[in-house]
Amino acid sequence: MSNRMGMLVTGAFDWTDVEFDLSNVNFVTDRDAGERWLSAPRPVCPGRFSDGNEVYVVTRYDAVRSLFTDRRVSNHPPEGVHLDSMRRRGVPEELLKYFDSTIMTMVPEDHRRVRSLIDRAFSARRVRTLRPRIERLVDDLLDQMDATGEVDLVAEYAHPISTTIICELLGVDDEYRDRWLRWTEAFTTFVRPDPVMLPPALRGMVDTVIRLIGARRAQPGDDLISDLVKASDETEKLDEVELVALVLVLVQAGLDTVRHSISLSLFHLLVHPDQLELVRSQPENTVQAVRELMRYAGPIKMALPRFAVEPIEVDGVTIPEGGQIQLVVGAANNDPQRFTDPRTLDVTRVDNPQLSFAAGDHFCPGASLATAETEIALNKLFARFPGVRLTGDPDEVGPRFLKAVAHLPVRLV
Question: What predicted TM-score, i.e. pTM, was given to this entire model?
Fold first, then answer.
C-alpha cells in the first residue's frame, strides 16, 4: 500500500489499525491511553499524527536516543510534505512561508547557520547573568500573592515567569505579552486546531514579530531581536522570512514550554510530599530534582516528526526512505530497560540521561534557561511558603497525557 507521501511502505504494519492516533482528541486527552504509550509496548508501533499522516512511532530509550543523532534521519520533510501538513492544519496560505522552513525543520547546513546565531544568547554564561533578574521577578511575584486566600500557581506564577523572561531576553514589548499566550494555545495543539481561532492567532503572531523587527531595525536595543536583525542586515546570515520564523519559534518555545515545565514540576511535587520535602530541605540539589521532574513528567512528550533519508532498520522494523518517524520522548524517559523503577518520581536519581531536551544537533538551546527558571521558581516558593498545599482534587487538576496543568489552585499557608 502507499502512504500519504506517495512512497511504497514496506514496514510490517497494518495502517488501518494504528495503535497511537494523535488525530483522535480522545487519545490525546485520555490518561489511560497516555499510560499505555509510556509503557512502550514494543520499540516501533504504527501511529497517525495529528495532521493524519501515518508515522512510525518509536518508544524505547535506546532507539529514540540513537535516532536523535542518526544522520539517516532528518528534521527536514520531503518536498511539499510540511506545506501540505500546514495547509491541512489550517495555516493561511500567505503565512505558510513563515512556518514551513523554521530552525526546527531546516536542512542541516541551514540549521547550523541559524543555530550559530542563537547559541550564545542561551549559553550557560548568559543564563548565569540572567539569574539575578529571574530571582527578582520571582520574589516580586511571591510578594504580590495573597497568602490568606487561594492562589493559581499557573496564572500567577508559572505564566508570568516564563512570559517575562523570554520577552525581556528577546525584546518583546510589554503591550504584546499577554496576547502571546492566547496565540500560542491556538497553535500548539496536538489535534486539529480550531479553524476559527487559528488564522487570526497566526496573523497576530506574524504581524507582531514583523512590527518588532521593524522597531529594532530603526532603534536597536540590548536584546536578541536586535542582535538577530543586525546579523540579518550586516552578515546576511538570515533572510527576512527566516528572521521572522526564528523569532516566532523562540517566543513560542520560551513562553509555552517553560510555563508547563514550572507548573508540572509544582504539581508533581505537591502530590508527592516526600519528594517535596527533599527539594525543600536540600535546595542545593534542585537542579538534579528538575532533571528528574523533566524525565518523570516533562511537558515535551514527543519530538517533532523526523523523516528517513534512506531505509533504516529499528528493532527488526524497516522504516522506508521518506517514512515519517515519531520519537516519543515521554516513553523513552520511562523505559524500564534504561531507568530503574521509571514510574516512581525520585528527585535523588543521579543516573538520569533523560531526553526531554532532545539530543544531537537539535538539542534544545534553551535547556539551561528553562532549568534555571524552574529551579528558582521551586526553591523560592517552597522556602517562602513551606506549607503550600494543593486545594483541588489531584485527579481533576492533574494533566492528561498531552495536556499540561491548566490551573494549579493552592493555599500558601
Answer: 0.91
